[in-house]
Every structure is written in structure tokens, then in C-alpha cells.
Amino acid sequence: PDFRNSTASYTVSLLAPEVIADLRLHAHGLAIVKRSLANFLPLPGNAFLKVGGGLAATQAEVAKFSPRDAQRLPDYYAMLSRVADVLRELLHVTPPNVGARRGGRLALALDAWKTAKPFRALDRAGQRDVLDLFTKSAGEILDRWFECEPIKAAFGFDAVVGNFQSPYAPGSAYVLLHHVFGEVNGERGQWGHALGGMGAITQAMAKECVARGVTIRTACAVRS
């Protein structure tokens, strides 16, 4: 009784902190608790792999299968975070409008130059990482970084959850970024659960709408 759990959209991380602040969602009752673990992978023979709980904890888990992979884990996370930092700078930037008739080619070129500035600030290795994560498959990236199957399986799942395609599908590497891109309660790269289910987010948004004088009608037919 009185317990609600979301089964489809079930975790919070990519809800921009600017949206939470501007709509005063916390003031309207939204509470998000950080997940203690990111993934749990059961394996044959009562073995398992836990991902999350801090870098040291994940490294200790991975070391059960590959000490080499445990050592490479910090560099892997750093690579993803470096690319995610670039994308965060562009999150609220309007992309160049290639179909615009006003302003001409000069204005378009200037907009494109401004948009590309964060990418140009990266070194050659960073630019290569951006290109790889936008074009290659998650399987290709993970095979290059790691040797043990359990950690590749855990991270590979992150790349295809809700995506319904192979981790070796071109472009799936981009989804790896989502798991370090967001934040929970000011902690980057974390995921959490909204108390009361994901509907608690829209309920908090609705309260702010009402506070601003918006009339919300539900279960109504729409004529126009």
C-alpha cells in the first residue's frame, strides 16, 4: 500500500539542474536518492560483478576478473568525463541553423565556429575520443579498453538499455556517455530514484505551473 515504482523510465540523472532550479521542483516535494550501485551482473557459479559505490569499490570488483582492467578503469572514466564536459558546454546552446535565409553564410560560419570552440580546445587524443564515441559501437570501444567479459557486459548493457540493438551497432558508443553526463543532487555521473516514482517529477512541475497561474485540465477531449 502507498508504494509506487516506475517500470519503464525508472532512474533520474539527465534532468538538467537548471530545470530543477527554475521550476523549484525540490520546493514542491521532489526528492531524489542516489543509487548505491549502478549495475549488478550475476554470473555462472555464484559469481557476480557489482558496478558502482565509488571508483575503488568498482575497481576491487573488476580486479576479481582482471587486475589489468581494474587499473584501466580510472582512465576509461576520465576519457568519458572529458568528452561529457565538452557536451555540457553545448547543452543549452542553439545549434547553427543551416536552413536560415537571414544573415547569410558569414553568420552561419560564425555560429558554427562558436559551437565548435569547445571541441577545438581538446587535444588530438580528446578530439579522437569524441569522433569515436559519436560514430563507433560500444563493443568496439569496450573491446579496445578492456579484456574481461563481465565488465564489457555490464558497460555494454548501459549502451543498449531501452535501445533494442546490438552493442556492436554503429553509434551505440554515444550512449556510454549518458552514464557520466548527468548528475544527482550536484554529484556528476550519478543516477538516482525519484521518491514516489518518476511521476513525482511531473507532479512537482504541475504544482509550479499552478503556482504561476496555469490551469491544468486532464481527461478532456481536444478540439483544437
The Cα radius of gyration reads 21 Å
Shape label:
globular
In DSSP terms, counting alpha (H) and pi (I) runs of 4 or more, how many helices?
Answer: 9
Q: How many β-strands, per DSSP?
A: 6
Into which percentage range does the β-strand content fall?
5-15%
Tell me about the largest β-sheet: 2 strands, antiparallel
Q: What is the SS-derived class?
A: mainly alpha
Helices and strands, in N-to-C order?
HEEEHHHHHHHEEEH
Strand order of the largest sheet: 1-6
Mean pLDDT, all residues: 89
How far do the termini sit from each other?
A: 39 Å
Question: What percent of residues adopt helix (DSSP H or I)?
Answer: 40-55%
Low-confidence stretches: none
Q: How are the elements arranged and paired?
A:
Layout: H1 17-22, E1 32-34, E2 39-43, E3 47-51, H2 55-63, H3 67-90, H4 104-120, H5 124-135, H6 138-145, H7 149-160, H8 174-181, E4 183-184, E5 187-188, E6 192-194, H9 199-211
Helix pairs in contact: 2-3, 3-8, 6-7, 7-8
Architecture overview:
Strands 1-6 form a two-stranded antiparallel sheet. The mean pLDDT is 89. By secondary structure, the protein is mostly helical. The protein has helices spanning 17-22, 55-63, 67-90, 104-120, 124-135, 138-145, 149-160, 174-181, 199-211, and strands spanning 32-34, 39-43, 47-51, 183-184, 187-188, 192-194. Strand 2 (39-43) and strand 3 (47-51) form a beta hairpin.
